[in-house]
Amino acid sequence: MKKVASVIMVGFLLLLSACSGGASGDGEGSGKSGTLKVGALYPLSGGLALLGEESFRGAELAIEEANKNGGIAGGKKIELVKGDAVDADAAQAEANRLINQENIKTIVGSYSSSIAFAASEVAERSGVLYWELGAVSDTITDRKYKYVVRTNPPASYFSKVHVDFIKEIVTKKLGKELGDIKVGLAYEDSTYGTTIADEAAKLAKKEGINVVTKQAYSAASNDLSSVVLNLKKAAPDVLIAVSYLNDAVLLARQSEELGLKVPVFVGSGGGHTMTDFEDAMGEKANGILNIDFPQYQINREATPGIEEFMALYKEKYGEDPRSGHSLTNYMGMKIVLDVMDKVGEVDPDKLKEEALKYTADPGSTVTGWGVEFDQDTGQNKLGQPYVHQWLNGELKTVWPENVAVEEPQIANK
Amino acid sequence: MTIVQTLISGILLGGIYSLISMGLNLILGVVRIVNFAHGELLMIAMYISFLFYTTMGLDPYVSAILVIICLFLLGVLTQRFMIQPILDTPASTKIFATLGLSIALQNLALMTLSANHLSVKTSYQTSVINIGELAVSIPRLVAFGAAVGVAVVLYLFLQKTLTGKAIRAVAMQKQAAFLMGINVKRIYLLAFGIGSGLVGLAGALLMPIYSVYPTIGASFILIAFVVVVLGGMGSMFGAFFGGLIIGLVEALSGVIFDPGLKEAIYFVIFIMVLLVRPSGIFSLGKGAEEVGLK
Amino acid sequence: MMQLLSKQKFLFLFGILLVVTPFVVTNRFYLNIFILILLYATIAGSWNILGGYGGQLSLGHAIFFGIGAYTSTLLYLNFGVSPWLGFIIAAVISIVVGILIGWPAFRLRGTYFTLTTIAFAEVIRHLTLYFRDVTKGAIGVNIRFEPSFANLIFREYSAYYFVVLVLFVISIAIAIWVDKTKVGYYLKAIREDEDGAETLGIHVTKYKMIAMVISAGMTGIAGVFYAQYMLFFEPISVFNMNFSIEIALIAIIGGVGTVFGPVLGAFIIIPLNELLRSSFPSLSGMNYLIYGVVLILIVSFLPNGLLPILKSIPKKLKGLNKKNIKVEDGEKVDYSG
């Protein structure tokens, strides 16, 4: 026992001394060699890796582009340090690593809301500015944290577009009154699905739209026949679906098999946006509507810089962007860089102050969004998701008109 | 009408669960190993099937035999180099070794193949046979038919052939079997190989129904355990009917109660069956002691 | 006598080191790792009472962890109950749930017991998702950062460190108590041969239940701490099967059925996790691949964990002992019942 004790003790001492050594770090994360450090927290492995990485690519590209163009704030280069945040626990640890090991004062992220929650907690406590560029849970900014800013629209904006689209377009196309339209909801039961669906149901009710059924299911389901059959019984005119990829494919295939025919099927990003979805469904995907962050079949005039982004992406990764997540994160990162350019350093308080002053007109950014941050919550109020439709294998923007490249095609049955 | 359609969907889903579980059941019954990496074997089978499809244009149904062979070999190698060395260790070691294998394989797939969801496009993927208002999905029906076929063939193989009898002997009493001159190690290799080969068949037949991605195994593994324990370890028909029961429970509870509750419901049923009849509904009760039952 | 003395000395030294840690380690990244090490050592130590001493390999301990987190947090958010009181309430509820699970599950052995605990954990996770009016469902629970002693929320990590240190010390004390009293001996007897233990007149179910009560209660308390430390959790982060696997793994790697095995395991696994994650930022999946392989190698070649190896090193160095490495405590474990 004595021997074990001494071995453990020596090990512990080594660990302790190693840790205290690292504590004195390499000073401020800026200045020295004319570089500014930015931390990036995305899920790069695990179940969320696909879109996590797609999101990360957007941030990475914005930084590479800025560095290629001579850096910011008078020639300072930006150094991107990434952390793999597979889940909330990892996000917490990685945020701590970026802040304390790498001396980073600005963190961007994160694709997933749970990662955003965990990481922003750490940032808030450490007084480090956390920029959310992609996660959609409303709560992230509703908490009114001092050091949290978000550039992308949250889930409730998705729900609003869902309801607006029904109000403005679906009623006309189907030739029905708003009160006669039956809406069904099918959504996966994690944060993403529940927030969008709950908010959409609330808004719909307020507008006097009849919500006939709400079907929550686990995204890990191997079978959605019960969801499909329940929907079939309710026979909605409009089906709002919120799905990840696996369940989006399953829902579409089983609807096809079990003969569920919904006049207007509207996805909410996630799986319904992915080219993998189109690959799996083939022509059966044709006509499926989808509300999401901006994609690439979009009015070029409303989204200046999008072609340059696509070229840059192709050059760097050897393939076309797999979804709009990279574009959204690219747009957000560019704002971060603009703000850093103006401040010239990474002081979180100065950055936050400058960020709140930052504005851009709608139609002037690569996503077509404007920028104006809510002074209390730090939420960009001028971002919005668009309505897309799968038409002949391409996801085309169909609404609102200023960004649309096609008219939404809804058959009046 | 909805209820009849639900029953059909449930039975077809049950066929899929049976198909996946029978291999697991054989491995658990004979080699006495709780293989947590079974789901990853399914994932590998699906990737191989996809590979044949993209490189040679082979339909998943056509390449099924090749996938089975690949998985058989993979199973034999796993048994020989990973399971065999730890056969005499405590159950915890085996559980954690196969869990480790599961984590390693999942992430190996993620590293090499990325998290993309890959699927094959077949002309029949959403085809149905319509009987009045009822619809029967063809790929699911094929999987169901295969499950029935496998259950029957495996039963005959285990009952009628000499090798099959040797496998059963090892499953029941490996010391006695050894004394009777049966090469236990070879039987283990064979059982693990066949069990994996069955997963290969499952993977091939699931390819027209599901997409493949690194974590797909995780969504099937717990269900497969439920099915095996429910049906009774070592009993092929048990695994088959266990699958059907779980499929039906899942489909019915989604329609009667709520789709969000179906997982909770079949796990509750699982717990109840364990308590009332721990050897499984269809088990003969043989050999259960060694895995921990009296 | 010699042995006892050195053990006390060791405990004393180890204690001092633990107390000075936050003064030496001021970097939050490292302090966070130390907090996690102590937290996981506490949980793995609690698991060890049931899974190590008692040989009941639970892979559902996330249940108690999650119940602890949800109980105290929902009470705190809805009724303003201080998490300090939450510790007690959470422990009580975890214990009640533990008894409700143990009562049927202890009739099963080995793998069947393990699968039952997994099934219970899945049921509870799905119910938490389903009843979202109460639990907030998948959205998870977010606690506002309002630092105060009563809220058990602190700006400084060192405060959290001392709280978790107290929990850790309690868990060690309980482990030593179990190890030295008849509870531990009976549990080991049950682990080695349940039927034999019963024949000898040991009330098997009673002692399994005692182990469950201790184990569930401590894990629930750890869940409360986790909630107040992270300030955000969701069903998938607290009722996660991977979490159950990880804590069992920590105990097994260190050495099950020993007081300090789980501690050693936590000191290895937690830093390893962080190291692997930060070492391969460009190869997604590489860290977990290595984790999986290490897991296979350790359980295959060192089924009794690392503690016995550590014990044998100094002896080997002295060349005292070549063939007779004595096994001192009850590290030899056979789960096959």
UniProtKB/TrEMBL annotation, chain A:
Superkingdom: Bacteria
Q: Which Pfam families match?
A: Peripla_BP_6
Name used for this protein in its record: Amino acid-binding protein
Gene3D superfamilies registered for this protein in UniProt:
3.40.50.2300
Which keywords has UniProt assigned to this entry? Amino-acid transport, Signal, Transport
User: What are the Leucine-binding protein domain coordinates in residue numbering?
Assistant: 35-359
Q: Which residues form the signal peptide?
A: 1-25
Instruction: Please state which protein family the record places this protein in.
Output: Belongs to the leucine-binding protein family.
State the PROSITE patterns in the record: PROKAR_LIPOPROTEIN
The species is Peribacillus cavernae
Coiled coil ranges (UniProt) are none
From TrEMBL, chain B:
Sorted alphabetically, the Gene Ontology BP terms of this entry are:
amino acid transport
Which Gene Ontology cellular component terms are annotated?
plasma membrane
Q: Which Pfam families match?
A: BPD_transp_2
Coiled-coil spans are none
The membrane-spanning stretches of this chain are 6-28, 35-55, 61-83, 95-118, 138-158, 187-206, 212-230, 237-257, 263-284
One Gene Ontology term of the molecular function aspect: transmembrane transporter activity
Compartments (UniProt record):
Cell membrane
Indicate the family of this protein. Answer: Belongs to the binding-protein-dependent transport system permease family. LivHM subfamily.
Per UniProt, the keywords (alphabetical) are:
Amino-acid transport, Cell membrane, Membrane, Transmembrane, Transmembrane helix, Transport
Q: How does this protein lie in the membrane?
A: Multi-pass membrane protein
Task: Return the protein name.
Answer: Branched-chain amino acid ABC transporter permease
Q: Which organism is it from?
A: Peribacillus cavernae
State the source organism's domain of life: Bacteria
Does Ribosomal protein show up as a keyword for this record? Answer: no
Automatic annotation (TrEMBL), chain C:
Where are its TM segments located?
32-50, 62-79, 85-106, 159-178, 209-233, 245-269, 289-310
* CDD domains reported for this sequence: TM_PBP1_LivM_like
**Which cell locations does it reside in?**
Cell membrane
Q: Which InterPro entries match?
A: ABC_transp_permease, LivM-like
GO cellular component terms, A-Z: plasma membrane
Lipid bilayer topology: Multi-pass membrane protein
The protein's superkingdom reads Bacteria
Q: Which GO terms describe its molecular function?
A: branched-chain amino acid transmembrane transporter activity
| Sorted UniProt keywords | Cell membrane, Membrane, Transmembrane, Transmembrane helix
Protein name (Swiss-Prot/TrEMBL): Branched-chain amino acid ABC transporter permease
Q: Which organism is it from?
A: Peribacillus cavernae
